[in-house]
Here is the input.
Amino acid sequence: MESTLLLMKGVYKSFPGVKALQDVDFDLRAGEVHALLGENGAGKSTLMKILGGIYSIDKGQIFINGKEVHINSVRDAIKHRISLIHQEIVLVTQMTIAENIYLGRELKDGFGLVDKKAMFSEAQKLMDDFQMDISSDSLISDLTVAQQQMIEIIKAVSFHSNIIVMDEPTSSLSDVEVRFLFNTIANLKANGVGIVYITHRMSELFEISDRVTVLRDGLYIGTSVTKETDVDSQIAMMVGRELKRYYIRDFSEIRGESVLRVENLNKDDKIISASFELFKGEILGFAGLLGAQRSELMQCIFGLLPFDSGGIYVNDQKVTINNPNDAIKNGIVYVTENRKEEGLFLDRTVKYNITLNVLHRFIRWLKSDSSVEDEIADNYMDKLSIKATGTAQIVRTLSGGNQQKTLISKWLATNPRILIMDEPTRGVDVGAKAEIYAIMNQLLKEGVSIIMISSELPEVINMSDRIAVMYNGTISKILDKEQFDQETIMQYATGRKD
Here is the structure.
């Protein structure tokens, strides 16, 4: 039997007004992947931040290789060969890859000075080991989000840690990069490294984990051997109830009239002759690998990016969209995949965010009608079941799922006819995912048409009426429902089918 690398026993942690963890136990064995599941706010990241020395422990014990240790700082964690890969990328963007990898432990020459040449050389070896065709003297700011995520992983591996915590490591990775990450995890396991894996993607859980521990509302719920459990059981443990229907969608065989038509849209050499049609009351899914230009195509349609040629038609009438205001006037809105940096004002209230795009409804002649503003915010907070103390709560303090519902509310307040949703459930837990699917289903009944970009194939397959597959800036195929399967989608997404 594998030896126990880590034991966290009876862990308590409180913040002002919040009991984040109460009597939580967790253990990790050498050479295993132990998944940590729970809804947003369940305490997963808090528990791991205690392990990483970011938070102090209020009460409880931590044992490494059977010996009790006290972790009061990040340096203590590193000393005990513990590395954390955070969900939020924490690299210094104006420094090079090599400087980031060796930040705080710079290599020195014989005179005690920083040896940049040695750092770049050693960092390049790590990059080559991970088959990343990038120079280690490249600036972090020049990398894609996925590449930055891989640098975070390489940095953690470079510490030669015995314990590595991965918090949503695949949220920004393409399928090819995910495959490589899973191969890396397998090699780490073979070398006796223990990995704590936090994810909301249930398919990943059953592919790579050995055991699963579930937290709910700061409490330890239970631990299962992965091969002896199933998705429904884990979801029931996470949300405290059985979700009988996870993908909530009522399908209709009746196709409504065309509400949006895009003809031969081109931008630079990135988007090439993109053409598709969206019908009333349907979800048109967009699948494809990272770099397929799905988001860029939608940003052109919403007026965030200029395009070179092509036409956009709303209700069979050609429209001119030079900016997002033009799109909104034509009933088109875009829910960005990056809610924290592009979608929400995190340090403002729920009410502020929901009503931001409809100021004209309650501000006239420099006078604000607060009762109308409150009515709008209260309506969408109730309609989308946003869990908050009230509309005056600061958005940053909400869970990921409730932040996402606030973002969706912000755009629904404009009464759109066409809703473009870019990775609508990224970084939210299964309970919140089911709620978002239910919201989408209800919007269809109200006559809204939805374009959904998703990197999760089960999501796009189960929620879409049709699926447009993109490859290298082109729409390689639009599939009808009876053609849906993961292999077919991947063949078109990788260019193996024309």
Summary: The longest strand covers residues 4-15. Residues 4-239 form a domain with the Rossmann fold fold (CATH 3.40.50.300). The chain has two domains: 4-239, 258-493. Residues 80 and 118 are 25 Å apart (CA to CA).
